[in-house]
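Propose amino acids for all 171 sites.
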């Protein structure tokens, strides 16, 4: 088990193989706790699923990932970004709280988002238990970001909200 200065904790098992001088492959599973969302860029290596990394790091702020699981089967070419990563090569399931998600600028950001998520090399699916969007209090909903490794991503949003009628127009 590894504990970082910011409180992030990680434990994993599996195999890390050195394929060449500075090239490694990973076949690991593990769990993690208390990952500050603002520290994601620090722990997600540049080049690894770069489009997914860019989207997540560029659009999700504040809050934390309270607990999660990871499974990764990654070749050296996937790790350095020289080869595309199949969806099944990486899977993260996690719980989050207090996130701010700027999912589709200039639309209203989600704030104080709480729920669970699944991330693979191609897609991010957030199951939001509660959040705020401008003046609206959102209930159960789903946000899907598709095509994380593509040049352009698609977003599908299925919210449930409460608030004044005018507030819904802010979405």
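Proposal:
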């Amino acid at each position: 088990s590894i504990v970082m200065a910011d409180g992030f904790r990680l434990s994993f098992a599996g195999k890390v193989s050195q394929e060449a001088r500075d090239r490694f492959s990973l076949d690991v599973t593990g769990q993690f706790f208390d990952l500050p969302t603002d520290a994601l860029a620090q722990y997600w290596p540049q080049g690894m699923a770069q489009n997914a990394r860019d989207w997540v790091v560029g659009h999700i702020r504040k809050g934390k990932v309270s607990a999660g699981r990871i499974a990764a089967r990654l070749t050296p070419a996937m790790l350095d970004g020289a080869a595309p990563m199949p969806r099944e090569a990486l899977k993260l399931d996690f719980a989050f709280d207090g996130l701010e998600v700027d999912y589709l600028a200039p639309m209203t950001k989600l704030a104080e988002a709480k729920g669970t998520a699944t991330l693979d090399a191609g897609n991010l699916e957030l199951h939001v238990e509660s959040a705020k969007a401008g003046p609206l209090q959102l209930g159960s909903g789903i946000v899907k970001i598709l095509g994380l490794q593509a040049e352009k991503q698609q977003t599908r949003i299925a919210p449930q909200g409460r608030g004044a009628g005018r507030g819904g127009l802010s979405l």
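The first strand starts at residue 2 and ends at 3. Residues 36 and 64 are 4 Å apart (CA to CA).
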